[in-house]
Amino acid sequence: MSSERNIFNNLSPLDHRYSRGENFRLLSQYFSEEARFKWEARVELALIETLVDFGIAPKKAIDQMKKAVESINADEVYKEEEKTKHNTRALVNCLRENVDSEFRQYIHLGATSFDIVDTAAILRYKAFNDEVLIPALKELIEKISEVAYRERSTVQLGRTHGQAAVPVTFGYYMAGFVSRLGNRLESLENYSSELTGQFSGAVGAYNSLSLLVDNPVEFETVLLNKLDLNRSEHSTQIIPPEKITDYIHGIVSTFGVIADLSDDFRHLQRSEISETGEAFSEDQVGSSTMPQKRNPINFENIKSSWKVTVPKIITVYMDQLCEHQRDLTNSSSARYYPEIISHLFLAIKRLNKVMARLVLDHENLKRNLDNHKDMILAEPLYIMLAREGHPDAHEAVRKLTLKSEETGKKVLELAQEDEGLNKYFDKLTTAEKDILNNPANYTGAAINETVEIVNNWSDRLNIERTW
Length: 467
Ligand SMILES: O=C(O)C[C@H](Nc1ncnc2c1ncn2[C@@H]1O[C@H](COP(=O)(O)O)[C@@H](O)[C@H]1O)C(=O)O
Description:
About 65% of the residues lie in helices and about 5% in strands. It has helices spanning about 15-20, 20-30, 35-55, 60-70, 75-85, 85-95, 115-150, 170-195, 215-225, 240-270, 295-310, 310-320, 330-335, 335-355, 360-375, 380-385, 395-405, 410-415, 420-425, 430-435, 445-460; strands at about 155-160, 165-170, 195, 230, 275, 360. Strand 3, helix 9 (about 215-225) and strand 4 form a beta-alpha-beta unit. The radius of gyration is 30 Å and the shape is elongated. The mean pLDDT is about 95. Bound molecules: the ligand O=C(O)C[C@H](Nc1ncnc2c1ncn2[C@@H]1O[C@H](COP(=O)(O)O)[C@@H](O)[C@H]1O)C(=O)O. The ligand O=C(O)C[C@H](Nc1ncnc2c1ncn2[C@@H]1O[C@H](COP(=O)(O)O)[C@@H](O)[C@H]1O)C(=O)O binds near residues 81, 85 and 88. This is Adenylosuccinate lyase.
């Protein structure tokens, strides 16, 4: 992403449309070209510090290098790359320019470009994950948990195959997303904690370091410790790509849950269903031609950006192939990984806002359930009859539903008139009769399980309960 100065000249909508203001500022700290060089320079600094630890460089080199790292800027590195045609060497040359001549020899000593580039990329992904993405996801889980708890007893028509099924509660429905996102959040934490760095030279066999120190693996360990990273058990010129592939899978599968929720809410905002909706502001316009329209624009945007993001994981899988000890065909493609992460982050932030102002239409929820009330008692009726000994209750009730469709009489009325069923009816409890008279009572364990699930995840994720 480029700087905010000429934002409307940028080519990607990620810059000029979707990550304005605070979000742009946050993403830029980790994923702008300027940030990329800063993080790479930070790894170069860790190298100098380690060379000092091992008695190779003088201590003064550290302060010199710190100043050089501070002064790095992308323009300068790009200008230098015009000469070198090699971006890491361009960065090294810029750092060298900014230290006194007697310290220049230590910069990048023993390193290959991707000891710096790959390790810095892992650092950025981990830092963004821990400092920005996980807190935003936690906030979303908190917001959905609030809705789940508040609406734990709000009965909603459950739908399978787009058809009326049996009731659920809106809270329990939401608790499903709490559980799925909680699970993804823990996976992202795990995948991120598994990411490793490297400092092992041009073919990964520590050839260059072995000319500088007795134990190159110890050197690598000390260097990476300074960056809070573990070493990779084996590397070529690049870090083995599987762990970043797992992490990006974590990103894309988290996005899948968010897209699934958004798509469902888009349907729930359909004119015919109209059970939930995005809050509409006073001056907001739904359609440029139909003044009455209230469109689910945020849910649609999230689904759309999910569609842009999912195919990008194919590139990540393709980057697993790297010829012998390395080729450069993963270099350009890996520059797009931050877009995958950024899209998820922006979708989470957008959904956070929508969830905080989600509108539920309780009347429509009831109306939609009532419209199907008569037929949805078929399942509880057949199970009660079978439990009490009816030999073929499913078929008996199926026939009643057909008769109901033909005659317009209610299924329950037909069942009560059926002499063959009387003896089973007598055995039902009051609560069961209540279910047959009003299937809104047929919500199983939904209410208790909603509370269990939201409490479980607020404990597990250390979310302060506001409900
Ligand atoms: O430590 C080394 O550099 C070892 C060297 N391999 C390289 N490792 C890392 N970067 C290299 C390498 N080769 C080129 N370049 C430079 O990478 C830049 C690629 O630009 P882009 O395709 O836009 O991602 C672009 O600036 C390229 O010049 C080797 O020969 O094995």
